[in-house]
TrEMBL record:
InterPro entries: HAMP_dom, HATPase_C_sf, HATPase_dom, His_kinase_dom, HisK_dim/P_dom, HisK_dim/P_sf, HssS/ArlS-like, Sig_transdc_His_kin-like_C. Residues 190-242 form the HAMP domain. PANTHER family: SENSOR HISTIDINE KINASE CPXA. The keyword Transferase applies. This is histidine kinase. Residues 257-470 form the Histidine kinase domain. It is a multi-pass membrane protein.
Amino acid sequence: MKFRWKLMIITMLIVSFSFGFGGMLLIQYSYQASIKQEKRAARNSYEMILRMLKEINEMDDTYQNQTFASVLKRLNWQGLLRDSSVRLLKEQHGEVQWKQPLYYNRKNDNFRRSNGFSTKQGKAVVFQNKNKVYYQITSKISYGKETMVFQGAYDISEVYATRHQQLVSFRKIFVLVIGIEIVVSYFLAMILTRPLQKLSQVSKQIADGDYSVRVPVHTEDEIGELSVSFNYMTEQLIEKLMKLDQLLKNQEEFMGSFAHEMKTPLTSIIGYADLMRMEALSKEEQKEACGYIYSEGKRLQNLSLKLMKLLVLKNQQFQMKKQDLEPMIQEAVTSMQYRLKEQDILVNLNLKKAICKIEPDLLKSLILNLIDNALKSMNSGGILTVEDRATQEGAKIYISDTGCGMPKDEISKITEAFYRIDKSRSRKQGGVGLGLAICKEIVRIHQGEMRFISQQGKGTTVIITIGGGAYEKTN
């Protein structure tokens, strides 16, 4: 069952119960008040006649049976008994002569026999006779030495008729109110659930692949808050899906690049090995073929080692320790001294003493990789600048070269595995496109970031930020 129908039914039940229960209580309260008033008026009238008869008993000394009857006749003739039925009976030997009343002003069958009454306390009963309801009071009264029974019956049918009419009218009003309430609650439920319907529609559109739709928010109530939360969840989900999609694309590119990197040296190795197997080669040709096989095998070995290193960096935990960056950077530059002299590169070092939490071997590998990339960008001649600077959060290392630089649209891709701007040139220099991917992981391990600033024909600057609370060393 839809929420709209549930809301409508619940609203209808609440209104029906409240209106029905409240109406019945009101009718019952009105009925009880009316019946009490009628009974009070009947008892007042009865007691007035009863007092009059008692006064006659005290004043009259003849004690004739017809005295009370004549008084009642006179009262009836004067119209004082027009709203009531009275009956006077005689009691003999403790038995009431119900069938032989001394007087009655209405039909005798308008009365009912009664018992358990006395002169001190009368007995009141309610009974129905021929679609009419009577309130009857019976009590004993003394007249000389005799005991008589005086009954008064009062028609209270109008109270019951009024209640019946109220119930009939209430049922009609109740049906009308419920009909109106059904219509109103339906449209109210439709209005209240419209945002939920829109939310459901948007959910289906998003599930079908339309990520541009959003739930319109027109209210600040709970449904409005739900819509805002849903839109936020959708944006976060889309962002994660895009990241996942990009990750899958990167994996596909990684596998494609890896297969391509494997294909080239394997093709050379298989080709030269097949040549040596099938052809009779001279010693010079054999030496040349073996050289190709060796160089391509070394490329495969280098590729496997770098891949293994990249996987280790992604999955291994490293122990950091405080160390001065200056001697470590100096050692890394010194280890590249041969290539620097060979390429006639001028080195400009601007190092300050700073201590930072690092993994020394990894950070040294990072510096060496970046210097190696800088040397590859400068064929002969040029300036290599290496600087460091202590910061409050960690340290910054700057490595700049005056090489060929990079196009701006290539900078965001250079840290991807197997990505190379000039593929043919990189292979000649022995690169496999994993160096900067390894550098990126090393920086991540050090809770830092790596940023490239480059301009074609002018050079590149790499800015490495390392976390770990660096500070200038004091002597």
